[in-house]
């Protein structure tokens, strides 16, 4: 595979200089060049109205229809099932037809422009089709991660006001069957009469039969066969919402991040091409679930807007035997492979011999997303999987940013292991101290972004005040990322982790308040605290401290740990289950009653000194007691 890249350091400098000199002209040209508009915008950024505000377009038409005249027979999706011989390939023309049929099914269910449709599916083609069908008719999709519990799903369905749900009979994860429909039914029962859901459409992933509620539930396949494959795309304003996606925050209630149409799609297309050096012959595989923003921007939208061929894989990295991912790469000639540090570390633990069995010579660009990648994993990924020839693009970004913000650009930016490297054109990161003062040169501080960019979220669903308070009021004049970072003398960035109360477990952002709210339902626990600590595999592991009510029987106290694990698995999801639960007599607090998570993190990491001045604590004696309890395991 050729290792020549589209950009050189010189051409990249011209690009970055152009956007810095005249961002309005640069982004207006990019918007016109990258997208097909039913009414072309005359301005890029309007401070009052947003990006490309006077333009109209349709996201689905930009991902599908525009490619039909010249590239209709090009493969859009390669879907690899769990079984090696179960492969589905869809051309852009075939995908377009299926999306149109699905869109007509949604319209027959009464879905209108601006309505919300919840999508709760495993890794099947119907997930992408459902997202594109919603975009086609102007409905907002709300994709729900398959690992959510019934209660977590119920919260999100209720908040979004979804009128239709698309789910599966079951999902397949190795030998396990994941009860998608059963979980959704439980979620809707929790909502009861408050549910806004009128229809539940069920994708048959397997032959398993599931109960169907008369008048509400229907199998999707017969409806698709009867539907027309002709559906004109709805012309949307560029600032109309495209989708709603929930992310955990430092409050107990998950935040519904809203992304627009024109700006988001421009940014997804721009960053996909730039960061991954996308070329027409590439086979692009992003392993992210579509329930996360990575799956939105770099599976469902960016690559398809750029006319790419994407690969979807139903299975697991090492099932039925280690090396399954490498087998898929070799079989389908994958050129671009984008995954998480957690997955990389897990695969690295299997040794070098397993990937050595497969021909990975098709690879030319590797990518990492979801959390900072450590030096050892970066080196293994680059040397063993990429053969030392493939650049590793370690991308930093968030649900709220819509796409990559800081990343290596192949051919143009020099790699530094474990560094996210440099900001992309149009991104202006700054480091601030705790007082909000800018830090110059080599420094470490709070990472914020100056100005706007096309992919920036529009708002938080039904709570713009919270959107402003969370992201723009902490440091006026800046977008507050919630992350800390270190910048070296050459301007390279290393992300150091969260500075708020959000824990990043295997790329899943979990609000500490969300965990603590779940635990609060255990009546024998008076209070709790959830913190994140470094984890070799997951990036961060979740540690929970619980304080039982006084006077509890020892047998009851002994059972509290198991109760905590169960309730977190039930109310949040199995992915959020803690590594350890410590039963403690109290939590370290300030005199105003605020938990000092900094101390709890240090103690959970095994540190026994260097805590600084403890005299400001209301209960300094608790610190050595926590050290003792954690030390005893």
Any overview of this molecule?
This protein has 633 residues and is α/β, with parallel strands linked by helices. It folds into two domains: 9-68 and 77-401, ANL, N-terminal domain (Rossmann fold, 3-Layer(aba) Sandwich), CATH 3.40.50; 504-631, GMP Synthetase, Chain A, domain 3 (2-Layer Sandwich), CATH 3.30.300.30. The protein contains 20 helices and 30 strands. The chain has a seven-stranded mixed β-sheet with strand order 5-4-17-16-18-19-20, sandwiched between helices. β19 (365-368), α14 (375-385) and β20 (392-394) form a beta-alpha-beta unit. α5 (92-108) packs across α6 (125-137) and α7 crosses α8. The N and C termini lie far apart (51 Å). The model has no long low-confidence stretch (mean pLDDT 94).
């Amino acid at each position: 595979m050729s290792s020549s890249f589209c950009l050189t350091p010189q051409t990249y400098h011209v690009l970055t200089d152009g956007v810095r000199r005249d961002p309005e002209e640069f982004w207006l040209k990019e918007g016109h060049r990258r997208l097909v508009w039913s009414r072309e915008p005359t301005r890029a950024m309007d401070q009052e109205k947003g990006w490309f505000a006077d333009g109209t377009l349709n996201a689905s038409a930009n991902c599908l229809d525009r490619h039909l005249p010249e590239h209709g027979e090009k493969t859009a999706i390669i879907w690899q099932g769990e079984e090696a011989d179960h492969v589905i390939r869809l051309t852009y023309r075939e995908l377009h037809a299926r999306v149109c049929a699905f869109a007509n099914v949604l319209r027959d269910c009464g879905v209108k422009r601006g309505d919300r449709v919840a999508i709760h599916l495993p890794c099947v083609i119907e997930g992408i089709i459902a997202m594109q069908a919603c975009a086609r008719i102007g409905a907002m999709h709300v994709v729900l991660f398959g690992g959510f519990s019934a209660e977590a799903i119920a919260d999100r369905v209720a908040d979004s006001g979804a009128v239709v749900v698309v789910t599966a009979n079951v999902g397949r994860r190795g030998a396990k069957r994941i009860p998608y429909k059963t979980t959704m039914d439980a979620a809707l029962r929790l909502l009861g009469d408050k549910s806004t859901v009128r229809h539940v459409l069920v994708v048959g992933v397997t032959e398993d039969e599931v109960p169907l509620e008369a008048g509400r539930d229907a199998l999707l396949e017969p409806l698709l066969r009867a539907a027309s494959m002709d559906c004109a795309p709805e012309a949307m304003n560029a600032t109309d919402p495209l989708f709603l996606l929930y992310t955990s925050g430092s409050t107990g209630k998950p935040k519904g991040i809203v992304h627009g149409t024109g700006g988001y799609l421009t940014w997804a297309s721009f960053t996909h091409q730039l960061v991954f050096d996308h070329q027409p012959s590439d086979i692009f595989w992003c392993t992210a679930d579509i329930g996360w923003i990575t799956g939105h921007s770099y599976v469902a939208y960016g690559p398809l807007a750029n006319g790419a061929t994407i690969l979807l894989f139903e299975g697991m990295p090492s099932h039925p035997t280690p090396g399954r991912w490498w087998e898929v790469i070799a079989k389908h000639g994958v050129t671009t492979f984008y995954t998480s540090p957690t997955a990389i570390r897990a695969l690295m633990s299997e040794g070098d011999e397993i990937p050595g069995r497969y021909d990975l010579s098709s690879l030319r660009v590797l990518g990492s997303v979801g959390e900072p990648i450590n030096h050892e994993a970066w080196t293994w990924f680059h040397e063993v999987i990429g053969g030392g020839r493939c650049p590793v693009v370690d991308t930093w970004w968030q649900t709220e940013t819509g796409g990559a913000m800081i990343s290596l650009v192949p051919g143009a930016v020099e790699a530094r292991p474990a560094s996210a490297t440099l900001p992309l054109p149009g991104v202006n990161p700054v480091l601030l101290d705790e007082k909000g003062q800018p830090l110059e040169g080599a420094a470490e501080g709070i990472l914020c972004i100056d100005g706007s960019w096309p992919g920036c979220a529009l708002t938080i669903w039904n709570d713009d005040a919270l959107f402003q308070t969370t992201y723009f009021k902490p440091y006026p004049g800046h977008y507050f990322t919630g992350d800390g970072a270190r910048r070296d003398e050459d301007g390279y960035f290393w992300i150091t982790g969260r500075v708020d109360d959000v824990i990043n477990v295997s790329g899943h952002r979990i609000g500490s308040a969300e965990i603590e709210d779940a635990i609060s339902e255990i009546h024998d626990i008076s209070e709790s605290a959830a913190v994140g600590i470094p984890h070799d595999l997951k990036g961060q592991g979740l540690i929970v401290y619980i304080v039982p009510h006084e006077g509890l029987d020892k047998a009851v106290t002994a059972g509290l740990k198991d109760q905590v694990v169960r309730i977190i698995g039930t109310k949040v999801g199995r992915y959020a289950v803690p590594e350890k639960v410590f039963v403690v007599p109290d939590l370290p607090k300030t005199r105003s009653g605020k938990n000092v998570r900094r101390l709890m993190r240090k103690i959970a990491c095994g540190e026994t000194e260097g805590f600084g001045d403890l005299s400001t604590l209301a209960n300094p004696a608790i610190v050595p007691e926590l050290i003792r309890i954690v030390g005893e395991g």
